[in-house]
Amino acid sequence: MKGDFVRLDKDTLKRLSDNPNFISGVYNYCDRWCERCPFTSRCMNYAISQEELSDADSIDVDNPEFTEKIFDVFKVSSELLTEMAEEHDIDLNDIDTEEYEQEIQFSKDAAKNNTCSIEAKKYTSLVKEWFESSENLFLDKEEELNNQLDLNIAGTNPVEASDKIKDSIEVILWYQHQIYVKIMRALNSKFREVREDWDDIPKDSDGSAKVALIGIDNSLKSWEYLNDQLTDNKDSILDILIHLDRLKKQVKKEFPDARDFIRPGLDEPEKYSELRS
Ligand code: SF4
Question: Which residues, other chains included, contact 54 with Cβ-Cβ below 8 Å and sequence gap of 6+?
Fold first, then answer.
């Protein structure tokens, strides 16, 4: 059943953005895994998604009402942006859109041709191919764990192993495409920052690269666990581990300050320790 849609309006958005309980920009450098995030109660993005898209059935790109709602979000955000620009005496029509579009295209092309993005894209394909060819591995493992359970073999914990395998798969699939997306954003931002001569301020490129690195770290741990658990096909997992580790080194080289970037809320444990307990 499709849910009843609540239309987003400027007042709702303003009400949400004025809420002092929210951590400003916490959603800018997260991994979008809200189900696992301790910051849902402090995140405006999450509040909007709950208010607007809370019905799982409604989140469907083939559902015209869903796409209308997404357009609503853009429309209302654009209206608010125009209002803010007027308040600060900025004429948005003054912006040379042709020049701006050329710069965007230049950054996009340069980002696509960068080694980090090429290798990250390749990683998404490696993951896809590995899962497509590994169904039997999981069936064998399932049988092995069921035997351990039936025979109550000392020193084994098949339930825990099964949960951890499932979790590893979820982690790998969650970051499979996100690593590429975040690297592309980091590269695009870096080219803009260099052009506009940004200095001494936290850079979006570093924040985005940090999210990519966290995705790589979590994926590496998950692949290592699968490598321990799945006896066959180890070579192909090792190939992926080597590829991912090399990508991590490339990203660190391209964005040497990424790890030092402080993500609002997420990297401020002293301020929000109660959310992590
Ligand atoms: S900060 Fe947490 S709740 Fe907000 S969008 Fe990111 S993952 Fe979701």
Answer: 3
